């Protein structure tokens, strides 16, 4: 009498997501999007190196309206302009919308879905891979900018806590924007176009006008968590005027956590339920 072999049990949701993560993280790191990401985060690094060199040569690069700005203030402005308002949302769009869309375009989605794992775990695993790749590239570039700029009429030790806050802030921004655009990529056609309209159209317009519309943006809650006191010059005063109405820290953290969880869950559910038709 022969004994039947037990049927291997399918991996759980989290284990399946980890398998997809292992498969995807290497592909993302060596993809063309990583080159684009390197160019995006390389710009502020290059600017900080040039500013430090010019300052060492005696050029008045840190003077605004006759007032010499300290390194920590310049660093705070660069975090705001280069990273928080541009790099984080742009990378969220380009990576988040591609988590599923690229698999459909490359016709590899059937390979992933033919495995005995939940379809939603495919998206969750690729989302974690996106976080690993962006954290690996973006956060070290912030540290380089910090080391170049802050020592100019400033102290590394005194502003180190602000650096940690900045790194945490950017990590939260990458996660939330990535979840939002993962849902867009899983649910809609032309997700990249929708994402670009959202960050460069809707968010800019909603934040610029008074009222409740800004509460339907990610930037409204992120900018409330910026730890720096912005320098008092005309350009930055204009920026402060635009974003004067800000929620409290607790409200921002709760709202961002809800947005992250809700859109990541919605993206996974969309992948589970949607039938993807591959174009011939």
SS element count, helices: 11
Strand content: under 5%
Oligomeric nature of the chains: single chain
The residue ranges in which pLDDT falls below 50 over 5 or more consecutive positions are 229-237
The largest sheet, given as strand count, sense and whether it forms a barrel, is:
2 strands, antiparallel
Helix fraction by DSSP (H/I, runs of at least 4): over 70%
Structural class: mainly alpha
Global morphology: globular
End-to-end span in angstroms? Answer: 50 Å
**Radius of gyration using CA atoms only:** 22 Å
Order of helices and strands: HHEEHHHHHHHHH
Query: Mean pLDDT across all residues, rounded?
Result: 80
Count of beta strands = 2
Strand order of the largest sheet: 1-2
Explain what this protein looks like in three dimensions.
- By secondary structure, the chain is an all-alpha fold.
- A two-stranded antiparallel ribbon has the order 1-2.
- It contains eleven helices and two strands, in the order ααββααααααααα.
- Helix 6 runs antiparallel to helix 7 (160-187).
- The chain has helices at residues 13-29, 32-56, 71-96, 98-105, 109-113, 119-149, 160-187, 191-208, 219-222, 234-242, 249-273, and strands spanning 63-64, 67-68.
Keyphrases for this structure?
11 helices; 280 residues
Give a nutshell description of this structure.
By secondary structure, the chain is an all-alpha fold. The chain has 11 helices and 2 strands, in the order ααββααααααααα.
